[in-house]
Amino acid sequence: MFAQMRCTVREAVVAAVVVVAAVALVAVVGSLSATTSAEQFTMLQRPSWAPPPWLFGPVWTVLYVLMAAAGWRAWCAGPGRARGQAMAWFAANLVLNAAWTPLFFALGQRTTALFEIVLLDVVVVVTTVLFWRRDRLAGALLLPYLAWSLYATALNGAIVALN
């Protein structure tokens, strides 16, 4: 069911450092761009199924840990072209993830953020599939992130429609 990890100890440490640093950078960008997000979020017209503002921090903390673990497992599932492809999609996912919060909150470009998050959803699906092919646990670890991203897309769309 799970791929055998094919990293040396040194490769596993390098992979962990690189993946954790990349995910942490995305988290910092999001955090810095969201300094007034709770206030902005409460001022927006939101659907009845919108979560309370305090929930975003804990959810994203868990999701970032899962993303880092998935990235590490996908990297350590073995070398080759498949690893490069999976990690390139993972990197694209991180870039798009980092861009959404500044678009939505810091710049107030909610419609642009909606188009961007739809693209992010596609990239997350592709990344999940590629990770699953390398290591099923790596793919499974991205499923909560995919679910949250799809929920966030619906929420972004509802906020655009209501405001």
UniProtKB/TrEMBL annotation:
Cell compartments where the protein resides: Membrane
Pfam families linked to this entry: TspO_MBR
Gene3D superfamilies named in the record: TspO/MBR protein
InterPro entries, per database record: TspO/MBR-related_sf, TspO_MBR
Spans through the membrane: 12-34, 54-75, 87-107, 113-132, 139-162
Membrane topology per record: Multi-pass membrane protein
GO terms for biological process, alphabetical: tetrapyrrole metabolic process
Family: Belongs to the TspO/BZRP family.
UniProt name for this protein: Tryptophan-rich sensory protein
Organism annotation: Saccharopolyspora hordei
